[in-house]
Write a structure and sequence with these properties.
By secondary structure, this protein is mostly helical. It contains ten helices and no strands. Helix 5 runs parallel beside helix 7 and helix 6 packs across helix 7. The chain starts with a helix and ends with a helix.
Length: 238
């Protein structure tokens, strides 16, 4: 039987596949065309392979999106300025600027950062990287915050940061909300392991789950509104 040149080309491309290449290509596609454009079919077409070939390296929608978020946030902790991060205020300033840089560089992918982690859907506010959350909590606790203070700081800081940056990313072409649509899986069977990531070494996230999962949205809204009104009042009275 004679193999067509197209089939030979796809076999050759499949031999060059890797998880890193698939995720890099997915992020590039999101950056160029937006998250709704991403499907296993379109990703496979870009890579010159059959959609089913991708499942040797990614387990499905959740695993693919998890990989994209890892690509966005993977170097975040390592890149924090140690000198500025030596005090909790410097740490928060540095972290905020690093996350904003991601929102500016990848506005169409940034809404993924503000989605629920498959292993921690109870995290409030949602942040896709539990590694970043764990580092945040551990840093503040190491600098003298108690558990309640560290969780409150996480809630306040993340609500402020993600709220502003989601708006900023929208002005740069990003979607106004997290993705809800199901990816086109290309007629492949999605492995049962899709999205099944444990909390791994995120010891603080696991330990503080009761506090992190509390719904205090009403209280936090009123507190934030009161703080805003007080700030405006001070500016007007000057």
């Amino acid at each position: 039987m004679t193999t067509s040149s197209g089939a030979r080309g796809k076999q050759s491309a499949a031999g060059r596949l890797s998880r890193e290449l698939i995720i890099e290509t997915a992020l590039s596609q999101i950056d160029a065309q937006g998250l709704p454009s991403l499907s296993m079919r379109s990703l496979a077409d870009l890579l010159g392979v059959e959609a089913m070939s991708l499942y040797r390296y990614v387990h499905g929608r959740e695993d693919l999106l998890e990989g994209v978020v890892d690509a966005l946030l993977g170097d975040l902790v390592a890149d924090l300025d140690e000198e500025l991060a030596g005090h909790w205020q410097g740490f928060l300033q540095t972290l905020a600027h690093q996350v904003r840089r991601i929102a500016i560089d990848h506005p169409r992918a940034f809404p993924l950062v503000a989605t629920r982690h498959p292993s921690a859907p109870w995290l409030r506010p949602p942040l896709r990287s539990v590694e970043v959350v764990d580092h945040f909590l551990k840093t503040l606790i190491d600098q003298g915050f108690n558990d309640e203070e560290a969780v409150h700081a996480y809630r306040s800081f993340t609500s402020f940061l993600l709220g502003l940056l989601l708006l900023e990313s929208a002005t740069r072409g990003g979607e106004t909300g997290p993705p809800d649509q199901t990816l086109d899986e290309g007629d492949a069977d999605v492995p049962e392991s899709d999205g099944r990531r444990g909390l791994g070494g995120a010891a603080e996230v696991r330990r503080l789950r009761p506090l992190l999962s509390e719904d205090r949205s009403d209280e936090e809204f009123e507190d934030a509104l009161e703080d805003l009104l007080e700030r405006i009042s001070r500016e007007v009275s000057q």
